[in-house]
Structure formats: structure tokens, C-alpha cells
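Structure ticket #2291
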Amino acid sequence: MHRSTPSIFDNIKTISEDQGQTVSVVGDNYRIIISGEQTQGAYAVIDMLVPPGGGPGPHAHAEIQELFYIVDGELEFKTQAGKYIAKKGSFINIPKGGEVHCFKNISNTMAHLLCTVIPSGLDQFFREIGTPTSAGVFLPPPVLDPAELARLRSAAEKHGQKLYPPDYLG
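Resolution: structure written out below.
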């Protein structure tokens, strides 16, 4: 029998484990599970795999709230307020307002985290600066020569971010 009334699933989005674009960003793999285009800009969810020693340098984005849930591994999160060692099951909220922050995988194993950004925007930034790759294929981090740094800064500014020197947070 064909139903003419709407189903509860008509407005629900489901994403399989093999869906979503994977991009290599600073040597990490970020799978954009759900993009801003799919949520009308409300939010984006990014599945992050960070190899030992990996993670982004200090940065800030005043208009985006960033939430992290640590699925596995051990990461050091730094902000202007201090540092926090995040392990499996930890949750980190970087509120809107431009708090400078970064994180680094300090373990010898792959770290896995889920990142939600509200509103979306970082997903577009990651696509612009990253290199498309396949799940499980990790590319080396780019050489941060003056031309690459200028490209990253330009893209960051375009997407409402500011990048800071690697030693900015100590």
C-alpha cells in the first residue's frame, strides 16, 4: 500500500560509514559526515582521525562554536586559559568568541574525534585547504613554506578564521 502522508523519516538525514568526503588537512584525515550545504548552514559534523603528533596549530574563529567528542586516543588541547589532556570519552566545547585554541595527538596511536561546528563553515574551509583522499589513506603534512602559509592565511580569513604562530600558546 502506498502512503500519501509524510513519514517521520522524510526530514531525517542518515549518513552511512562510507559516505562523506574525506580530505587530508595538515596530515590529518577529516571526513565531512554532514556538511553545511546539507543543513542549510546550521551546523556541520566532521569525523577526525589524527595520527601521532598531528593536529592543527593555534587558530581562532569568532563566529563558530566548535564541539569535540574524543572517540579514542589522547590529545592535548591548548587555549589561552591553559591546557587539557582529553582522553576517550572527553568532551571539549570551544564557544563562539574567538578563543585561540589548538590540539595535538600526544599518544603513539591514532586519535579519533568527532567535531561539530555551529554554524557550519569549517567544513568549507577544510575542503578549500585540504586534499581529497580516500578513507585510510594519510598524506604527509604540507611543507609550511611562505607560499603555503600565505595560502592558508588567505583561506582562513575568507572563512572567518585567524591563524597564529605554532608557539603562540606555549
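Closing remark: Residues 146-158 form the longest helix (13 residues).
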